[in-house]
Design brief:
There is one protein chain. It is built from seven helices and ten strands. It is of the alpha/beta class and about 230 residues long. The protein has a domain of about 160 residues: P-loop containing nucleotide triphosphate hydrolases (Rossmann fold, 3-Layer(aba) Sandwich).
Length: about 230
Amino acid sequence: MIQTKHTNKIYKMGEIDLEIIKDLNLEIGHGEFVAIVGPSGSGKSTVLNLLGCLDKPNSGEIVVDGVDVTKLSTTELANFRGKNIGFIFQSFNLIPVLSVYENIEYPLIMIQNLPKEIRDEKIMHLLKEVNMLEQKDKFPDQLSGGQRQRVAIARALVTEPKIVFADEPTANLDTKTSNQIIELMRKIQKEFKTTFIFATHDEKIVSAVDRIITLVDGVVVDDKRIEL
């Protein structure tokens, strides 16, 4: 599903080049449930942005679902993301003036431009999956943190992406809600065979995944699979 080959990312800070990711070589298969861990500043979010086609490396290759995304134009990358990738963020990133239903509907209109009947079927199915059917007409500021994250998960999944990237998705949630969200994502991963890749400090996520990739100073120092 994802392969990186000698991938490097450098950011310029004035006249200084900061090498954030160094010689990244990874293979992540279809349907994996993976955590990328490491101390703050280790490059976790940068790796997520590179693999999720939000940023490009300075050198090396990134192949996603058989496509070398480093060779795509900005427009081609946007189209590729829309068809293949979903994102879940720590801050939820819901649109405050849209209802729950409309937030989930948004990518179906903007990215896929599907007919109303098909949109409605997809949205109602996911609202049931994330247990938010009764809140479909509410706005984000009327929801708890856990409810907002459920909406964000539904929005990430509504385009039926092959891969979902989640950047600290439980950071703003209490323990009980975090556990519920992790269970929900695991349920979805098993049901839809979706690949989930987390950047996280949360031990609850780390204890739930099948594989842990550890980054230190932009270098993979450990990559272990968990026998469940």
